[in-house]
Amino acid sequence: MAPLVRRSWAPRGQTPLLYQRTAFRQKVSILAALSVSPQRRRVGLYFSLRANANVTTTWLKAFLHDLASHLRHPLLIVWDRLPGHRARSVQVYLSRRRRLHAVLLPAYAPELNPVETFWAYLKQNPLANLAAPDAPALANTARRQARRLRHRQALLRAFIRSTPLFLRLR
Hints:
Elements: E1 28-36, E2 43-51, H1 57-70, E3 75-79, H2 83-86, H3 88-95, E4 100-104, H4 114-124, H5 135-149, H6 153-161
Parallel strand pairs: 3-4
Antiparallel strand pairs: 1-2
């Protein structure tokens, strides 16, 4: 849970100090999706965070269910090759949902995944130099910062445009 240390400002001669606990093995797991509206006018950000939890197929299927219930149009899901995405139970779940279609990105191609750009931005900007006392505090801060990003359409569009995918925005 060591913070990502970035350059910061401080008065001359006063080195900034980041105090942290040495409680390792704590983590925050997050599932996220970026959606592009059918008219290509709006980008949406959807996410689910959990402190000290692994991504499971049950959590992934619940996230897909919530995403599909919120977005009424057919969904083309483009995702990386996380083992949970390729799990048999997830594939069966997708095959039973006519509105959900999944396409896997090539192996080892994070540059094609716009959600990876979202992760990088979240870690390197609002969460940089944050020494959270524990995983729930980090999860709360990450949740608050991700909610703020939902309203920044220009930034969400930049996440989509950062990849050479076929998505075109107006």
